[in-house]
Amino acid sequence: MSKPGRKSSELFQSDWAKRINQLRKNTGLPQTVFASAFHSSAMTVSRWERGISEPPSHTYLEMGSLAGDPLCWYFWERAGLSKADLLRVMPRLQARLRKLQTPKLEIVTAGSGAKRKRNNKLELVAIPLLKTVAAALGEKGDGQALLPDAPVESMLAAPKSWCPNPATTSCVRVRGGSMSPLIHDGYILAVDSSQTEVGGLNGKLVIAWHKDKGLAVSRLQRYDHTLVLRSENPSYEAVILTAKERWKIVAKVLWWIGSEP
After folding, report:
1. pTM above 0.85, yes or no
2. Helices vs. strands in the chain: H and E counts, helices first
3. How does pLDDT run across 40-61, given as a tens digit for each residue?
4. How remote is the C-alpha of 250 from its chain's centroid?
């Protein structure tokens, strides 16, 4: 029998709901202010804390960054990230930590905003690998124009120095051979969706989006007053950016990973 005055929903509150409530109380923030940190409403936070609806993966990542160690790992594991996963994708780091016996490892999370400066820490960025494909020019890519809104497939880890803007860094897969021999089919690209001004992207690899053709990876080139998306593979035709074509630059490519073809 429940105690007088205690709501029945509290008796069956999910563990994740309790942890979110604990996090908010630890920060001392009211629901309205707490909600704003995750671009949500106080009503949404209330539903989280009552276990009615669960936060998406990217919100769990942000909660982990706000919580700090050790509570951060609970939220990151809800989003699909764990210490074991992190060390598996960076075996050299694992060996180094074992050799030094000084596991001063600081995790920062892409998409979680500004980070506090810490000393004597090896900082890594946990980057979301999106369920999104950027295709070769001439092929149809995924139609997701806003990369931060795309669903998360898994997580990757990289040195923070590789990600100048962790809050807007994510990874997408490549489909097609238009960028070979530089980038091959199946490679993973790390991209920064805050770098979209064409004035600073001449000669750079970019992710472009078209309403009908979806996402595409290419090199942005300026010739006098003409902007062109071109492939590394000469067998693919370049695309001239005009008002009629309506291509939009949505991210700059930072780096990529892939197995030898």
Report:
1. no
2. 8, 10
3. 899 999 999 999 999 988 788 7
4. 14
